[in-house]
Amino acid sequence: MPGVACPSCATPEKMHLSVYSRYVHIYWIPLFPFSKPTFVHCGHCQQAWEENGMPAELRSSTQQLKGQTRAPLWHWMGLLVIASLLAWSIISSGLKSMP
Fold first, then answer.
1. What is d(CA 12, CA 44) in angstroms, rounded to the nearest whole number?
2. Confidence band (pLDDT; 50, 70, 90) for 97?
3. How far is CA 44 from CA 6, 18, 57, in A?
4. Contact criterion met (CB below 8 Å) for 57 and 49
5. Burial bucket for residue 28 (CB in 10 Å: 0-12, 13-18, 19+)
């Protein structure tokens, strides 16, 4: 995290932010993402904070960087598979009903 000092040891430029994506899945096939939890870690003093226990001075820069991240496209693959199967079933049933 550029320009952010650690609240614990005051070392600048050693903070690392990780943004994870949680998703709804069926049998480990992702359907869609629903949350992005964050985790901040100091590379100098090894202090770590989760989003709900984060100091206020880290929270604003964390929220800004969290807003810039996006969920990977593969987290939407389950919906693509379901939509493809639905389209295929509609098309195949329409072709069978033709004289």
1. 9
2. low
3. 9, 16, 18
4. no
5. exposed
Task: Give residue 55's region: left, alpha or beta (phi > 0; psi -120 to 50).
Answer: beta
CA 37 from centroid of its chain's CA atoms = 7
pTM above 0.70, yes or no: no
**Structural tokens at position 11:** 């070392």
Among candidates 58, 53, 40, which has minimal Cα distance to 3? Answer: 58
The two structure tokens encoding residue 84: 């493809």
| Cβ contact 68:20 at 8 Å | no
Alpha carbons 99 and 62: distance in angstroms, whole number: 61
